[in-house]
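Ticket #4471: complex job returned nothing on first submit. Input attached below:
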Amino acid sequence: KDNTLVEYFRAQIRGDPDVASAVAAIRSLLEFLRRDQSETILGLRENMTQAIRRLEETDSSVAVSSGGELFLRFISLTSLEHPDLSQCKNVMIERGELFLKKISLSRGKVGKLCHTFIKDGAKILTHSSSRVVLKVLENAAADNKRFTVYVTESQPDSAGKRMAQKLRKLNIPVMVVLDAAVGYIMEKVDLVIVGAEGVVESGGVINKIGTYQMAVCSKAHNKPFYVVAESFKFVRLYPLNQQDVPDRFKYTADILKTVKDLNQEHPMIDYTPPSLITLLFTDLGVLTPSAVSDELIKLYL
Amino acid sequence: NEGKELTKEEKQRLRKEKKQHKKNKKDDKGPPEKEKEKEKASVPAPSKPATQSPAHKAPAPVHASESAAAAEKPAKSKAELRAERRARQDSERTSKQGKKEGGQQSASSKPKATPNELQPVVKRLPEHVQVDDPAALKKLAKKLERQQVPLRSDYGYKVSLFSHLHQYSRKSPPTLQISIPATVIHPSIVRLGLQYSQGIIAGSNARSVALLHTFKQVIQDYSTPPNEELSRDLVNKLSPYISFLSQCRPLSASMGNAIKYIKKEISNIPSQCKEEEAKGKLQACIDSYINEKIILASEAISKYAIEKISDGDVILVYGCSSLVNHILCKAFEKQRKFRVIVVDSRPRLEGREALRRLVKKGIRCTYVLISALSYILPEVSKVFLGAHALLANGYVMSRVGTSQIALVAKAYNVPVLVCCETYKFCERVQTDSFVSNELDDPDDLIVTRNGKSHLENWQTVKSLGLLNLVYDVTPPDFVDLVITDLGMIPCTSVPVVLRVKNVDQ
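Support reply: We reran it on our side without changes. The output follows.
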C-alpha cells in the first residue's frame, strides 16, 4: 500500500512537471483517502499521518510537509458527526477536493498580485528556479512590460540555467550570473524576487541555499527583497538561526537515508530571517513578515 | 422581598441625588478610571444616612423598575448616571451575556447589549500615577481616607524625570499605621502587604500566587451582611484591600489580571446561590486559575523551550525568573548537555538565588555581574529572559537591566528568547521606561565597605538624588522569540494573542 502511494506521487510529478510538489503530494493523499479501508476515524487519521510521513521521506522539501499537515487539518476541521463512517469519509473527500482546487489556483493568484510591483524598464534579480516567480514574470510579460532578469546559476544543481531557458522561451531578456557575483550585480538591479520552499512562523523563509546571501546584499544596498509563496507553504517552525533548521529539511531524501555523517554534506537550503524581507506575496494577500504569524494563527488555531 | 426592594430603591434614589449634587460641584473630570474608583469609593462614605454597604452596581432592571417609580429627577441626569454606571459595569463585568447570570439579570442582557456596541470595550487600564500633580494626589488621599486605608508618604528626593512616581522607604510600611486589631483590612491582607513592602515575596508569579491564596482566605472568612448580595458586596469589600496592597507596593500586571478575573467571577455568582456554595465555587475558581495559568502554563512553556535547547549550548540568564529556572531544571532532567551563565546586578542581587537553585540541581553555572556582559557574550549561544509583563505593542517589561542584555546580545547576534505566560499579557502600550515604572527604596543603593558608607548622608546633599529603578522596557526588535503557553510567537504577535483571548472570553 505504501509503495502504491509513492508511485502515484512520482507519477503525478512526472506527468505534470510544472505542478508544485506539495500539490502533487496532496493529490496523492486525496487518492489515498479514497482508497483507504480503515473502520474508524481515528484509524483513518493515523493512516493519513503515516502516509504524509512516507511522502516526506520521498521528497524532503518543506512544502510537502507543510502542505500535508494543512491538508489534514483542513479536512478534519469540520464536525464529523455522522454516525456512518462512509458519510464522514465522503465529507472529508469533498473538503479535500475543495482544498485541492483552492491551492491549484493559488499560484495564479500570487502571480496576479505580484506583477503590478514590476515597473516598466525594471531589472530583476532572482535566485535558482522557482515556478511561482516564473508565473509572476509570465504575467508581467503578458502585461506588455519591458524588463530584464538576472538569474543566479544556483549550484550545485545548476537550477538557474533551467530557469534561464524557460524565461528565454517567454522572450524575456535574461542573463545568468555566478552565485558569487550577487554582490557585484546588486547595484544594477531594482528589485529582488525569490520563491520559497517554506515560510516559517517568524515571517522568515526557507529557500535554496544562497538566498540568505542575496537578502543580506540587498539589505546593504537598500533594494526591496520580495518573496512569493503560496499559503500552503506556511509551516509551524521557528528557527532562530541557520543551525536551528531541522536536518530533515536541509538535505535531500536520498542523502538522509544513505549518508552517516551529515556534517560532510552540504545543505540544500538556508533560512532568511524576517528582518531582511520587505514583503511576502501570498494568495492570502500581500503580507509583511510580522503578519505571517497572524495568518498562521488563523490557519492553525 | 418587596420591602427590601423598596428600601434599596430609596437608598439608590438618595445616593443618586447626592451624586448629582457632587457632580454639579466637580470641575475636574479625571481619567474615567479615577472617576470609576471615585464613584465606587464615594458610595461607602460615612455621610450616607441609611446605607451600610450599598449595592451601587445595581443592574439595569432595577433601574427600569425605579424609573417608573421615581419621578423627581430630571430625565437627562438619570440617563447620564445610568450610562455611566453601565460603562462601569461593562468594564468590570465582562461576563458572558445571559448564560451565566441568574433570572434577575437575564433581562439586563438586552439593555446591556446596546452600551456594549456604543462604547468600544472599555478596558481597565492601571491607574496613571501622577504624584507631582497635587490635584491627583488630593483625590487619591480622599479616596484612601474614605476606604480607611492609610496613606503612605513619599521618602527622599526624587530624580526629576521620575518625580511622577511614588518612592517609598522600606523602613516605614503602611502596616505601621494600621491599628490592632485591624477593622477594615483583613489581617491576612495586612500580612501580605507587609511581605510585599519588605520584599519578602518578590517576583511576578510569587506575588500573584500569594495574592490569590490570600483572597481565598478572605473569601473563606467573609460573611454576607443582611440585605446584601454576595456578588456585589464582596467586590466592594475587596476594593480597600487592593488599595492597601497597592500602597504597600504598586500592583504588577499579573496581579492586575488576576484581580480582574476574580472580580469577574464574583460578579458572575447567581443571586440565588447559597453563601457556602458560592464561597466554595470561588475557591475552586481561584484554584483552577492558579493551576491553569501558572502551573500548567509553565509546563507547556518548558515543553516548547526544551526544543530550543540543544546539546553544547551556553545559555545566559539574568536575575531570578521562576519560569526560566523551571525550564532549565526540566531541560537538565531531560539529559540535555548545556551550561548556564547567570548575570546579576545590584542592588537586588537576585541572580544569587537563581544560581543557588541551578547549582543545587547540578547544572554547571558561571556567575558574572552585568558590567562583564560584553566580555562574556561571545561565549553565549542563547539568552533566556523572563518577563514581568508583555505590553500590547510587543514591548517586554522586565527587571531593570533586561533591555541592556537584549541590546548587547543583538549586537553580538545572539538569539534572545523571552518566556512569558499569557496571563501576564497586558493591554497597556508603552515605548519607554519612564512613563510607568516603580521606584524602590533609594537607601538600598548605600553600600558599606570597610566600615565606611559613602552615601549614608545623601539626603543632606541638596543636588544629589538616588535612583533605584525596578523595571525597564525592551523593544521588540531585540527579541527574537517569545515562548508562551500558546506556542512560540514573534514579539509583534502579542496583540494577536490578546485578540484571540478576548474572543474566547
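The CA atoms of residues 97 and 110 of chain B lie 9 Å apart. Closing as resolved unless it happens again.
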